[in-house]
Amino acid sequence: MTQARFRVGNLELLVMSDGSFYLDAGAVFGVVPRERWEPYAGPIDNHHRLALGTNCVALRSQGKAILIETGVGEKSMRKDATPLEEGSLLTELEAGFGRPENIDVVMNSHLHGDHCGWNTRYVDGKLVPTFPNAEYLIQRAEWEAATHPNERTRATYLAENLTPVAESGRLRLLDGETKVTDEVTIVPTVGHSEGHASVVITSGGEMAIYIGDMVQQAVQLERTAWVAAFDVLPLMSMEAKKRLVEKAIQEKALLICVHLSFPGAGHMTRTPDGYKKWVPA
User: Fold this and answer.
1) Residue of 211, 24, 30, 190 lying closest to 115 (CA atoms)
2) Best CATH choice for the domain 3-280 from the list 3.60.15.10, 3.20.20.70, 3.30.2380.10, 3.40.50.720
3) What is the pTM of this model?
C-alpha cells in the first residue's frame, strides 16, 4: 500500500500512488542542456529515461468526498507509458478512503492520459465513469483542447478517458477560478496545457496546493526557466510557476507534485542568499 497522510488545518489529505512510469529525461527538461540538468535528475536508465510518480489526493471538505487526479488507469496509457511500477488507485482509495461510488467530486489538473486514466473503466465490456456519482470538474479550455487535439497532442488526449464522462452527464466545465467548497478552490495555471489548473486547499490558516503537471522534477520549482518540452505554452508556464512559488513561500504552503517520487510533497523556501529551495516534507 502506497499512501501518505498530511494535515492542513482541520483537513486530512490522503496522497495515493497509481504507480510510476518512465519518461524520456531530455523531454522532461526541455531545452536545458543535459550537463546542466543531469546532476539533479536522479537515476536514468539505459534508454535515457527518468522514473515519474503519479501522486493523487483524496480529502473530505464540508461534506464532499473529493478526488484530485485519477492517474494512469488500466487502459491503453498504462501500456504506452512504459510502467516501472504498476499501481491501482482504486485499491488505494478503497483501503484508505472509500469505494468509487462514494466520491462526490473528481478534479483533473488537465486531461493528459497519465492524469485522468481512472476517469473511466471497463464494466462488462463497456467504458463507463469510474466514479458514477461524482461531478467531474474540468476547465472548459482544457476540454476543448482535449476533444480537438492536434498533431502534437492527440497521442495523450485519449477519448476513452473523456467521452464516457460527457455522455453520462457528469461533466461540469469551468471558466476560470472556481470554489468547490469554502476550503477547496480550482485555480488556472496555464502553460503545461491550454487549460491546466491547480487546486488550492485552505483550512485553519494553513494551505496546500496540488500543482498538477507544472513541474516533473523538484529542481524545476527552483529554476523558473527550466520547463518541460511537453509544455505547450512554455512562457505562460514560467509565469504561472513564478506566481505559484512566490505564493507557496509567502503562505508556507504544502505543495503536492504529481510526478515527483511518492508522496511528492514538500515546501518552497528561500536560502539566506535569496535562492528558492525545495524541501521535501
Assistant:
1) 211
2) 3.60.15.10
3) 0.94
